[in-house]
Design a protein that fits this description.
Shape: globular
Distance between the termini: 58 Å
Structural class: alpha/beta
CATH topology of one domain: Rossmann fold
CATH class of one domain: Alpha Beta
Radius of gyration: 23 Å
């Protein structure tokens, strides 16, 4: 049996290949057979460019239906897909140059405005745009066959590498297998009740797990369809919701909907399910949304390394402030510092195990070993508690990861940029509660005596060096940073201090 994820997807939609898959507002309707043929042509073009099974293909492209076809083409050809946030910059050593050096992609597909810079940076890779003139990937694929024999993959063959941030050290490439993706997708389709009649409003980016894997796989496995939006625009979403049956989003989507006067129960009358993930959903948002629409948002818990682990139920109580019980086939436990299971409602470290859990970190075998317990559980780094009925509540993060607008942010990288500025002694970067983004990036800075850059100067400098979503919303100046007896900066103290600023 072929374990290739595309083979699984194809088996589920092939009988309905003439049906729509993507509905582009103001644009064409993309049917399943269009997606199948286009991904076949791209697969042929990638092989013609020199790719061989197991090679990495990096993509930093704007959201489009052809970008989804590129991902599917990589699956079909046995290549390893490496999606990259469109905010990452060539000029930052910790962003694109690092990812390219670490993953060593055979092909890089990028936007036109960075083509020359990436070509100069990576002469050993084939670099091209997705759209455009004769040298673009789609132009190379135009005369290729619309039929491609999907490569036979084993369950543990790599399908993708997604880079995930931590609090120390280098960014890590999580190795995601065909088994990881297929098992998780099949479970979610069943648990969330997807059918051919569903229409998913898709306003998420497609460079991370939520938008690329969770949303697209659920649709394709049920042969349903998507309203395919380039980004989240609250007025456009309100206008299109009456055509949808499901919406997936980050908490920021829901806070912005609640701030829109035209958003009410009538707008949601056709929607059977709202799903929230990628960051914690505040109970206040859950309650306000239910009061406005009569709908209880379904919150779930996942990670780059694991896909989805838990979910509030489709049928049954969706408890605000919790992410529900473990999904079928996934084991979730909360343990103390000695690795012993905690009593119900006691806080401890969350660990997970199942076919959804990644194969390890790319070229980091020692780090991979550190992240797993002796009995094979992945240590998530999150803190939580399990209720007596098995609902998981996330109470914090053992690591200092910041999640803003559903995107993971690595504080150390920003601190290093700030500390390198003239007039700066040291800094600490934290996330503080934000009603729109969940957390807002905030910098706390100790200046050297004499002239130091202002808040606006620090922010403007960082905007030129790192992705915009990482740039602090505020910069606070202090005489010194709070430290514990061991000299470690107490970021918890800072978060409390600036939470109500």
């Amino acid at each position: 049996m072929n374990a290739n994820l595309y083979a699984l997807l194809h088996d589920h939609f092939v009988e309905h290949a003439e049906q729509p898959c993507l509905l582009l507002p103001g644009g064409p309707v993309i049917h399943y057979d269009d997606l199948d043929a286009t991904s076949a042509r791209i697969a042929h073009a990638l092989l013609a460019a020199g790719c061989r099974a197991g090679d990495r293909v990096a993509a930093q492209v704007d959201k489009s239906w052809e970008a989804l076809a590129l991902y599917l083409a990589c699956l079909r050809a046995g290549l390893v897909y490496l999606p990259l946030n469109t905010g990452y910059q060539v000029s930052s050593a910790n962003e694109l140059p690092y990812f390219f050096d670490d993953a060593d992609p055979a092909v890089i597909v990028c936007r036109a405005e960075v083509l020359d810079a990436i070509t100069a940076l990576r002469p050993q890779s084939t670099v091209m745009t997705l759209h455009g003139e004769s040298t673009s990937l789609l132009a190379r694929a135009a005369d290729k066959s619309g039929i491609f024999d999907t490569v036979h993959s084993r369950p543990d063959d790599l399908a993708a590498i997604l880079y995930t941030s931590g609090t120390t050290g280098r960014s890590k490439g999580a190795m995601i297998t065909h088994r990881n993706l297929g098992s998780n997708a099949l479970t979610l389709v069943e648990q969330w009740g997807f059918t051919r009649g569903d229409v998913l409003l898709h306003a998420l980016p497609i460079y991370h797990v939520h938008g690329l894997f969770v949303a697209c796989h659920c649709v394709m496995l049920s042969a349903s369809r998507m309203l395919w939006l380039p980004k989240f625009d609250v007025k456009e979403v309100v206008a299109l919701l009456p055509q949808a049956t499901v919406m997936m989003g980050v908490p920021t989507f829901y806070t912005r909907l609640l701030s829109e006067p035209g958003f009410d129960a009538k707008v949601c009358r056709t929607v059977r399910l709202f799903v929230s993930g990628s960051a914690p959903l505040l109970p206040d948002t859950f309650n306000a949304f239910k009061a406005r629409t009569g709908q209880a948002i379904l919150e779930r818990y996942g990670m780059t390394e694991t896909g989805m682990n838990t979910s509030n139920p489709l049928m049954g109580a969706r408890v605000p402030g919790t992410v529900g019980p473990a999904l079928p086939g996934v084991s979730v436990r909360v343990v103390d510092d000695q690795g012993r299971p905690c009593a119900a409602s006691a806080v401890g470290s969350i660990e997970v195990k199942g076919p959804n859990v990644y194969a390890g970190y790319w070229r980091m075998p020692e780090k991979t070993r550190e992240e797993f317990s002796a009995d094979g559980y992945f240590r998530t780094g999150d803190l939580g508690e399990l209720s007596p009925n098995g609902y998981l509540k996330i109470v914090g993060r053992a690591k200092d990861l910041i999640i803003s607008g559903g995107l993971n942010i690595y504080p150390k990288e920003i601190e290093e940029k700030i500390d390198a500025l003239p007039g700066i002694f040291e800094s600490a970067v934290i996330g503080v509660p934000d009603s729109d983004f969940g957390e807002a990036v905030t910098a706390v800075v100790v200046a050297r005596p004499g002239a130091a850059p202002s808040e606006s100067e620090i922010i403007s400098t960082l905007k030129a060096e790192i992705a915009a979503f990482k740039v602090p919303k505020r910069v606070h100046f202090v005489e010194d940073l709070p430290r514990n007896a061991m000299g470690k900066v107490e970021k918890g103290v800072l978060r409390q201090r600036y939470a109500v600023d």
